[in-house]
Amino acid sequence: MTGEDHDTGRFEERLDAIEDTPGAPPNRITADTIHDVGRVYAALEERRIEAVIPPIRAPRRKGAQGFATERFRFDPHHDVVRRAAKKRLTPRNSTKSGKWHRSDRRDCARCPLKAQCLPQGAPSRRVHIVANHAAIQRARRKRLAWGENDHAIYTRHRWRVEGAHGTAKTLHGLARAIRRGLENMKIQALLTAIAMNLKKLAAAVMIFFVSIVGSRLAGPTPGIGLKRLFQQPPEPFSRRTHGLASRPR
Q1: Which of 28, 111, 143, 166 could anchor a disulfide with 50, C-beta 3.0 to 4.6 Å?
Q2: pTM for this one?
């Protein structure tokens, strides 16, 4: 993705491509914390795909006053936000990523939690609810119930997927685009993947060759051949031992 769009901007398009490859949708999707957004969870819920995504820690501006947004409960059926004193915050204006919900000034004036809830100088409380907020809350509740299997799945994702991405960026130049345009970026990513796979293939062939040589040197006892191959000091060169004895004159 380019810097002009979020990494999840084409998530549903990539899901379609994943489903077209094996001919069936996956049962589970693993991803890093940048995919902890509402549209990702909503798309996965619609397709009945389990999401193994760790949540982003709720951002809170340094020096922010009043109760955190997590102290309020969103009711998606009535599109209202409920607070500790059982008062409602109704939607007022929409933004690109969600809606602002604001409470009534008279309710805030009579509220016993006014000093702790309201920022300094604010006549009423407002809370920003992002799109698909309910899907985010459901996914985070599932995250709290992760078991050993879920943790093992995400640990495998970190070293197998994120590790490969880090190697491609740090050792193979994928951190910067060589040419402009998505098509040129696809070519660069494909060439990078080919180079990484060739290195893995070369390492596998070397391990296979060394194991064959070691097994021949070991004879009936396995594991001794490699030790002999790497630890035995080299035999001194001799014309007689190497079949290079001089001919009789």
Answers
A1: 28
A2: 0.64
pLDDT tens digits, one per residue of 126-171: 888 888 888 888 888 888 888 899 889 988 888 888 888 888 999 9
Query: Domain map of the chain by residue range?
Result: 11-57+138-177, 69-130, 186-231
Q: How big is the chain by its Cα radius of gyration, in Å?
A: 30
DSSP bridge pairs for 127: 101
Contacts 24+ apart (CB under 8 A), 65-73: 65/118, 65/119, 65/120, 66/116, 66/117, 66/118, 66/119, 66/122, 66/125, 67/113, 67/116, 67/117, 67/125, 69/127, 69/128, 72/127
Distance from C-alpha of 111 to C-alpha of 109, rounded to nearest angstrom: 6
58 touches 36 (CB < 8 A): no
